[in-house]
Fold this sequence. Notes:
By secondary structure, the chain is α+β, with helices and mostly antiparallel strands. The chain is 34% helix and 13% strand.
Amino acid sequence: xxxxxxxxxxxxxxxxxxxxxxxxxxxxxxxxxxxxxxxxxxxxxxxxxxxxxxxxxxxxxxxxxxxxxxxxxxxxxxxxxxxxxxxxx
Length: 89
């Protein structure tokens, strides 16, 4: 997986502004992403692979954080995992 960064030229969605019009950024080939080290456009296959792995990682992180939040917020258990509220005999 390659390291990528946002294109500083085409940061507004992969376009550069001309006098009258906007056109695809030459530095990032209109994708808004460039190779981290040289700052050049990536081949589409590499970009899709890298962004897909980044998305999978973030989805896993989000699921973990949601599970942790749910586990902390719904912990009404007493000793030994019981759910005693004290209002029943």
